[in-house]
Design goal:
The protein contains five helices and 23 strands. The chain is an alpha+beta fold and 287 residues long. The N and C termini lie far apart (67 Å). Calcium ion binds next to strand 3, strand 17 and strand 21. It holds the Pfam family Glu_cyclase_2.
Length: 287
């Protein structure tokens, strides 16, 4: 009887193990973490509290936050010089921007107010309202995608801005909060996660995070001491397959290449970073 009891116990443990494996396959596989190679370093206004970043028709646009310091502007990539700028009403806290056709749309943090601006002259065309908070925005070619700090991304009709879809973002099966600045890149939604050094790669069909981009070396290189001066701002130049990132009040804007881009050999012999010391050198200096 004792032997039969032990055998039953073994079978039950085996079955329990199978059940656990069946329930938790997603949790058992770690999401890939990519690093990035810095190709170029450009100046960035250290007083720009970056909330939105994008490239449209070869022009770089940025939006900034804080009441009284919220601007939408076009900047020269190489020098950081402001080429054109408009300021939001001083009681509003600017957040994300998105380019759709010949317009830029902008949202605000907790004011529930957004604006339309003409391109490329940034003339104010109109104002709209929306429920909830506004954080980051991007465009998938059909819908505007809006983040609001929750795990839910709203997909908006660019015409009347009604919500056509809601997508809950999860990482390892867990809803992902603090989704901030957004950027579409090769069919994926890249998202800054507020207060982290990582960008999430989100599958817009499922909402699942399919990988992470760890930019800790860039954060260390900038060496910001303000706790609010976090990584935020992603711009993808699809025409030239170039990716740019920066942060709030950062003095630098980086052109980076992801390890997946390198392995994909999309570009031959990427140029070395000759404009600034390497991240490793920066770390040594501060040590
Ligand atoms: Ca962006």
């Amino acid at each position: 009887m004792a032997a039969r009891g032990a055998s039953c116990l073994t079978v039950m443990r085996f079955l329990r193990c199978l059940i656990v494996l069946a329930i938790l396959p997603a949790h058992a596989v770690a999401l890939p973490v990519e690093t990035a190679r810095v190709l170029h370093v450009y100046p960035h206004d250290p007083s720009a509290f970056t909330e939105g970043l994008l490239i449209h028709d070869g022009r770089l646009y940025e939006s900034t936050g804080y009441e009284g310091a919220s601007f939408i502007r076009e900047e020269d990539l190489r020098t950081g010089r402001v080429l054109r700028s408009v300021q939001l009403p001083p009681d509003l806290f600017g957040e994300g921007i998105v380019a759709v056709g010949d317009e830029i749309l902008s949202v605000t943090w907790r004011n529930g107010v957004g604006f339309r601006w003409s391109l490329p002259d940034l003339r104010r065309l109109g104002r709209f309202q929306y429920p909830g908070e506004g954080w980051g925005m991007t465009y998938d070619g059909r819908r505007i995608i809006l983040s609001d700090g929750t795990p839910v991304l709203r997909f908006l009709d660019p015409g009347d801005l009604h919500v056509v879809r809601r997508l809950t973002v999860t990482a390892d099966g867990v809803p992902l909060r603090n989704i901030n600045e957004l950027e579409m890149m090769k069919g994926e939604v890249l998202a800054n996660i507020w207060l982290t050094n990582e960008i999430a790669r989100i599958d817009p069909a499922t909402g699942k995070v399919i990988g992470w981009i760890d930019l800790t070396p860039l954060v260390r290189r900038v060496g910001a001491r303000d706790v609010d001066a976090v990584l935020n701002g992603i711009a993808y130049d699809a025409a030239n397959d170039r990716l740019y990132v920066t942060g709030k009040d950062w003095p630098l804007l980086f052109e980076i290449m992801l390890s997946s881009q390198i392995s994909g050999a999309r570009r031959e012999a990427p140029p070395p970073d000759t404009t600034a010391p390497s991240p490793e050198a920066g770390i040594r200096r501060r040590a």
